[in-house]
Amino acid sequence: MKNLIIIVAVVILVGLGAYWFMGGWQRDAGIVDIKRDQGTTTDVTKTPGNGQTAVVSPVVQNKVETVIGKSVEGRDITAYHYGTGDKEILLVGGVHGGYSWNTALVAYEIMDYLKANPGTVPGNIKVTVIPVLNPDGLFKVVGATAGFTKADVSPSQAVQVSGRFNANDVDLNRNFDCEWQKTGMWQSKTVSGGSAAFSEPESVALKNYVEAHRPAAAVVFFSSAGGVFSSSCGGGILAATTALTNLYAKAAGYPAYKSFDFYATTGDMVNWLAKKEIPAISVLLTNHTDTEWTKNWAGIKAALDYYAK
Asked: Is 251 helix (H, G, I), strand (E, B) or coil?
């Protein structure tokens, strides 16, 4: 009888030890568990005895990137995020794909800098970079959508020009809903604005992201004219846009312009942002080969400091 009691006691002690080791005692006692779901970390506790979870407090995890859409040929259009503040500053490159490949390259340079220097982003700011809005056009010219250099650029001027358009041969910067026309102008040439405003998956991706997130300001890179241009759509320039234009231009050493008047533009993306009452500027690099990193980082830094106030 005595031996039986000892055996039963040993079995009970072993069972309790295993239960403790597996964390059951802790969980039933209400100790915090961690549940991860789609980039967000949430603290939860289990109510003793019923196994149900109750949210205690959200712990926001910095989500590094978001695929916001696909190109005509199925390539990802990706937004990369730096910082977790409430004010979002949107930076966009590669609208004209391989024709303006240096605008994608400057966007990647910005990303490299922000990744290496996360303290650069003020606490109340989130910087979102969409480095390539037209990945099909960029791929046509450099054979990649990321990780490329000047050496990868096709030397053919005809190929570079063809890379301005998406795979449907539409100029994405003529496909937005601001004075949209089916046929637009590029210098002295006619180009397709698409079958309707937002007929193209790339412009729809940008539209959906902007309408969902409502950025506090936007900077969009093009080439080449060497200047900072305010946006507007059928009305006056927003005061916040004028302020952004002037501070970026002054910091970067570019001339500032109230509007782009070299030739008529219809369906312009940055003007559509103005229609949505978002302060937005076009930054036109001086040529098609240089990123003018020092100038543009100075402009971006000035914008971050301004919106951090």
From this structure: helix
